[in-house]
Amino acid sequence: MSSLRYRYQTLEFDETDIHVRTLRDNQQFSDDEGIAAGLGISSAHWPLFGVIWPSGEALAHLMFHYDIEGKKILEVGCGIGLASLVLNHRTADITATDHHPEAEAFLKINAALNDDRKIPFVRMKWSDPKSLLGRFDLIIGSDVLYESEHAQQLAGFINDHAELHCDVIIVDPGRRQRGRFRTQMAGHGFACIEIQPHQDESGSRPYAGQIMHLYK
Known about the structure:
By secondary structure, this protein is of the alpha/beta class. It has six helices and nine strands; from the N terminus they run E-E-H-H-E-H-E-H-E-E-H-E-H-E-E.
């Protein structure tokens, strides 16, 4: 079994601490049984799920203050799932999804590190046939538009899982697919506004990206 190195860290959200085990860095790799390779995940892309990226931190800080009352929430492309961990700590109705075969195990460990319940998780691709996940009032994601096909795939996936009136929050660092994604979402009836996060919404590091708020 390939050896992985981990990093344990605590992120502060006002007076709340969220404890996270991540990969030590984005040079780690372990796929002895070839599961990730069989899913089309290369060794270069394998570790990307397992570290905290600035967009994920910005989304998590936004979700710490977000109105979650009565909302059924879905995180797409969750990776390490920091936003889901924050929402779970707030006892939100949160479901996480990702394509990576190790994402669920990390999410389970990190929920336990915070003495919180297990987060419902489904491993899937956005291009998979329409799932049985159901529909959601709020769909969130961070830095999820880094491949050319992602704009169309993600827009279709969101449309399939959005309630009649749904908010979508996508934090994006400036990927080229952002404009195409907005166009695809407009075709599904979503309006969009883009805002720059305040410093207290983006964590310890200044964040130069945008928050896309789509709604219908």
